[in-house]
Each structure stands twice: as C-alpha cells, then as structure tokens.
Design brief:
Mean pLDDT: 91
CATH architecture of the largest domain: 2-Layer Sandwich
CATH superfamily of the largest domain: ATP-grasp fold, B domain
Order of helices and strands: HEHEEHEHHHHEEHEEEEHEHEEHH
CATH class of the largest domain: Alpha Beta
Number of strands: 13
Helix content: 25-40%
Structural class: alpha+beta
C-alpha cells in the first residue's frame, strides 16, 4: 500500500484553493458530483469507455470534465494527470471492487479516507475480528458439515449480493458452492434488514462525541434484491424448490427506511464501537461507512457486515434524509464528503482525512 508519507508529499504540492473531487462514473457518483458542486469544488469523472450519456440528463450532477480509460486496470496510468489537477479520489464500491483492492491501495493519488481499512473490510475473517473485537453481536459462523438449518453463504469482497445463496443443509451447500471462491457461512437471521449510513469525522468537535472527533448518522435504507424480494409470489418455498426456482440476492435498488426512535441510542452505540475499534486497529475509519444489520422482533440488532465507504443506499437521499435534515437541510452523504475535505483544507488538516 502507498505510504502515508508519499501521500503527504503529494498533498504538500496541491493548490488547496483549487481542489477537485474525482471518482469513477458509477455507483454513487451522481450524488458525489452534485455534493461537490454544491460545495464549490471542481469535479472529474473517470469513465471506462465513453462518458455515460445519462449525465447529460442530470446537469447538476454532471462532472466538469471526464478522463477516459479503456479499463479499470488503466486507472493508475492517469494518476499523474489527477495529481496535476489537485484531485482527491472518492472511493466507492464499484471503484474499489472493479479496480481491485490491491491496485487501489497502491494508487498514487490522495484518496478520501484511510486505505488501511481495505485489509480489514475485504477479508471476512478480519472483518469479523474487527467487529467482534468492538463488542458487536454478529451472526455465528457455521462449518459446512454442521449446517442444520438455514445459513447465508457469502463470497468475499463487494459483489452487490451476486453469488450469495441460502443453504439449509450440507447437500445444498455442496450443490451451490464455487470451490474457487473464498467464502463465509453465517447463520440466517430472521428479521428486517436495515443498512445504517454513518459518517465519522476526526476533525469536527460539535456533535456526538467520540474519543476523537464525532459520529453522524445520516440515513438508512433497505436493499431491493432480485429475485428474493418477489420470488414467493410464485408459490411456497417448497413449490419453488420443486420447480428449480431458487432465490438470488443481486442488489437492483434501494428503498428508504426510518427506525423507531427508541432504537437510536443502540444504533449510535454500534457506530461508536466500530469506529473506536478501528482507531485502535488501524488508525481509524474516516468518512462514510455502513453497518449492514438485521433488526429482530426482539428489537435486537445484529451486524452481519460493514462497508467502509459511501454505499449506494445513500443515493436515495441526494437532497437529504429525515436524519441528515436534522443536521443540515439538503445534506447528502456526497455533500458531506466535500464539506469534510473543504474543512480539512481550511484547517490545514487535509493529511488527517486522506491516504
């Protein structure tokens, strides 16, 4: 991974009055560009192939300029061009997944957040070490031979739900598993899925205070998955199984959610524990992150995964959410990222929030 010292040397040559926000034209780029424009920052869209035409339909979210590459593997070739434009990369799920965590970790361009989190987030064993070390209640891990009820089998990395499957016994597991993929098996928790969108700032002081900085909870959502959300209209689980129709969990969209207000203390406690543990493990998880949870009928909250960057579920709230509006009207996660960058530059603390 590129060193903090190398990034500091690059940042030292930046014109802080002429910063640009750069990201790949995918995932959550519309709100990232929109938020940057609202904060008066230039925007650079990195696109694989020709610039997507749909940006023309959304002028407030269209990047000021494009840099075209032939493939994600070619992004390192434009690193110097990005540096010359005083660019700060905003990572998102598509950016990191398709470029590859290892290649992204070596990219010699300042990136918002702490790249050290990649090691802990992309490996499900280390992710569990992190979350359980924070005192988070997670679904238990199940050995393949000991499957005696519904379990969720997940491959490592951010794949938008692709390849996940439910198995009820060892035979079903063997029928569906890809032996070439690294996987984790978790007990299947019955409840409602909530994806909680947090933001950690190490430089702000007013708000929900942590040992260093503050924690914000900007929004929450639930994912729409194909075909799991509609499949049972066709029949009972046994009828579907007999017909060879199995549920899949590919994310196709998102819907907004608001939690019972009485659960907010517990929700903030979860975010606080995860951030504090990250500070001890690898120097902190900076900026947006998402706790992927299940709320049970006993009002327990079980965390089954963490995404340590902006997630697509925040796209619902380009003009603010019921929570972020109580911080500042019209506050999206994309806008909040640009605010943090501007404040850090103003305070001479940019090196604290980039890596």
């Amino acid at each position: 991974m590129i060193s903090k010292q190398q990034i500091s040397e690059i940042i030292s040559k930046y014109d802080l009055d002429d910063l640009a926000i750069a990201t790949v034209c995918s995932h959550s780029s519309l709100q990232i560009f929109d938020g940057a424009r609202k904060e008066g920052l230039k925007t650079i869209g990195i696109c694989v192939g020709q610039p997507p035409r749909f940006y023309d339909a959304f002028p407030k979210a269209k990047p000021d300029e494009y840099i075209v590459v032939e493939s994600y593997a070619d992004i390192p070739k434009i690193a110097q061009e990005l540096v010359e434009k005083n660019a700060i990369i905003i990572p998102h799920g598509s950016f990191v997944e398709y470029m590859g965590a290892k290649n992204f970790a070596e990219l010699p361009v300042p990136s918002f957040g702490n790249r050290a989190v990649l090691e802990w987030e992309s490996d499900r064993d280390k992710e569990r070490e992190w979350l359980e070390g924070a005192g988070i209640h997670m679904p238990k891990v199940v050995d393949p031979e000991k499957i005696d009820g519904p379990v969720m089998v997940k491959y490592h990395g951010a794949k938008g739900g692709r390849g996940f499957f439910v198995a009820k016994n060892y035979d079903e597991f063997k029928q569906n598993i890809d032996p070439n993929e690294k996987f984790t098996i978790q007990e299947f928790i019955v409840g409602t899925r909530y994806y909680l969108h947090f933001f950690y700032s190490p430089i702000r002081e007013e708000g929900y205070k942590l040992s260093n900085g503050i924690l914000e909870m900007l929004s929450m959502d639930r994912r729409v998955e194909a075909n799991a959300d509609e499949i049972f209209r066709l029949g009972s689980p046994r009828e579907l199984e007999d017909a060879g129709i199995l549920p899949t969990y590919v994310v196709t969209g998102n819907v907004p959610l608001v939690a019972r207000e009485s659960l907010l203390p517990h929700i903030f406690s979860l975010g606080e524990k995860v951030v504090e543990e990250s500070l001890d493990l690898f120097g902190g998880m900076i900026g947006p992150f998402c706790l992927e949870t299940v709320f049970t009928d006993k009002l327990e909250i079980k965390v089954f995964e963490i995404s340590a960057r902006i997630v697509a579920g925040t796209n619902i709230y380009t003009s603010g959410s019921p929570y972020s509006d109580l911080i500042e009207p019209d506050l999206s996660t994309g806008k909040r990222i640009s605010q943090e960058i501007k404040l850090a530059a103003k305070l001479g603390k940019l090196e604290m929030i980039v890596s």
